[in-house]
Amino acid sequence: MSKVTKADIIDAIYNKADIERKEIRSVVDLFIEEIKGALVSYKVVELRGFGTFEIKIRKGRQKARNPKTGEIVSVDSHGIAAFRAGRELKQDVWALKREKNTNQSENNEGMA
What we know:
The protein is an alpha+beta fold. The chain has two domains: about 1-45, HU Protein, Chain A (Irregular); about 45-110, HU Protein, Chain A (Irregular). It has three helices and five strands; from the N terminus they run H-H-E-E-E-E-E-H. Strand 1 (about 45) and strand 2 form a beta hairpin. Helix 1 packs across helix 2. It is elongated. It starts with 5 loop residues before the first helix and ends with a helix.
């Protein structure tokens, strides 16, 4: 599985729109800052057809373990950024999964 970076997104928009890269980068950066600002203010960010960003508070624990050292430490309650995919995104991703499984099944049948 490969990844797409912010620079890749900016390049893709640049190739599709008649806008300078510098302006696209500014808009993308502003968009990200707006989402961060809303989350830090305990606001939910809903992007219809894509998904919802929200802050969830994870309970602290008296006995947690540092995975590197094995040392027992206590962890305070803290916020985490959470994303829930919207209906359209879920459907698009679900369709990809089915296609991948279908292709794998066909390949496995040919091997048997």
